[in-house]
Amino acid sequence: AASVEHTFMVSQVKMTHLCKETLATVVNGQLPGPAIYVTEGDSVTVHVVNKSPHNITIHWHGVKQWLNCWADGVPMITQLPIQPNQNFTYRFNVIGQEGTLWWHAHVPFLRASLHGALIIRPRNGASSYPFPKPDREVPIIIADYWQLDLAQAARRMMHGFLYSFANASTINGKLGDIFNCSGVPEDNYVLDVVPGKTYLLRIINAALFAEFYLKIAGHKFTVVGADASYVSPYTTDVIAIAPGETVDALVVADAPPGRYYMVALPNQAPLPDQQTPEYTTRGIMQYRNSHSSADGPARLRSDHGVEEEEEEEDDGSFGDVPVAPEMPDIHDTFTSYYFHSNLTNLYKTMVPQHVDERLYIVLSMGSICKHGQSCWRGGGHNETILIATMNNVSFQHPTGKTPLLEAHYNHTGSVDVMQELPDRPPRPFNFTDHALITDGPKEMALEPSHKATVVRRFRYGAVVEMVFQSTALMQSDSNPMHLHGHNMILLAQGLGNFDAAKDVAKYNLVNPPVRNTILVPNLGWAAIRFVANNPGVWFIHCHFEFHLTMGMAAVFIVEDGPTMDTSLPPPPANFPTYCGHDDNLLS
Ligand code: C2O
Predict the structure, then answer these.
(1) Where in the sequence is the domain holding 498, given as residue range(s)?
(2) Is the CB of 244 under 6 A from ligand 1?
(3) Does residue 373 sit in the same domain as residue 470?
(4) What confidence category does residue 583 fall into, taking pLDDT thresholds of 50, 70 and 90?
């Protein structure tokens, strides 16, 4: 196994899009940041040099970090953030995982500009893929572009200003020609292809707020992996991907040579009374020699403005206007449900049969008064802050200067507001009844909500079954639930309220998919199992940034096992320490 080394220089750079210059916090001056390519079994070293004004951590999304929780990169949970002008070196091994993962900053909102691919190839080379060997592999990162200062947007949200929106969606950093400024379209991401060749697209949703549908006109995808785990080949013309998820898909360039739009459409579940902007973006899949100019007309158009259009009309070749795919409706949640239900593990999944702990976790929203106590039923509206909850508790980030992992490791007391995550909601409820939405948010809170640093302890090796239940209050957003340090086996999902009496029979105990992020169906539920066998302090949260920032999160503490090699070793050298500049270490 080799060792792969990178230096990540985090700094602010000027970017100009849509007629406006923005200061963006990025790695090595790039957006998306550098892709890390490894072979399974490699060790990875990343030196993070923080030249930005923000506190930063980098999380290796989906990397199991076996006995290496110290490198998981969650501020105040596993480490103090890397403060401005500090450095920290992350070291980890990538073992037993193949496919596409990614890395991102784990401080509120900043992952919108601090992210990149982490691609794990098999030890024995590309010929050992369990699918036809691709001719080329291409990361496709779907993200959003913000002109608003991200740290400021996060603070606004934490103080109860609900919505801040991105200005555009992007594919590999390009806004696409739907977006323009004074008539000059933005660049499209262009994938150049050769007729007959096979491309492995490694698709990542790095956006803060939107689940996306991805289509390429005239082409089909064969999905072969998700979250760095192989799935049974599944052929589809549309991919649904939620924030935090990855999908590996083969595309064969088997259409008549030409130019085809690759469209990413945010799937916005119906918002009852609100209008949100639509941020469709498009790239172009372009067959080699399908246009006389190497740069393609999209580039010409942006270089020369409108005059170019006439020439394109007259060109007569098929290359000018790319073929557009027909997209699902923007409010269609069923296509996503169908896509996610169709994924199964390529192999037989080792599903643990005996369950030690069961949690039924209701994902919802509540409100608290600005001054702490609940404003449920009758609290003054101006004084309430909306919070997102798991079983009616909203996660409070530890505010001291000792991260939870360090306190756990040293057995040094605990955080004041630490509280056990309840294993069920406070009272039964019709969670997905549509009618509820008309009664407005305050009727939806199960009970007065509150904030606490919610944790749940598991003994080493415990088999945990969790059902995530979505609620009517969540019907306008998606809930991709992400667990650090462990993969989850997705046993089943369904619409409506989970009913153990009939739904347990639907569990797939043969070849369920293995994921690090579980998209809980809109107005539905998802049931998972995982084995708590990685000692440490692990974050579990919704990857929809709005929910995470508002507290839809908890911490799972996995106790050490009986032996040295099932116990968490000491922290690495040069672990960040508090350097006394800043009281709020989260932004
Ligand atoms: Cu990709 Cu805790 O996140």
Answers:
(1) 357-566
(2) yes
(3) yes
(4) low
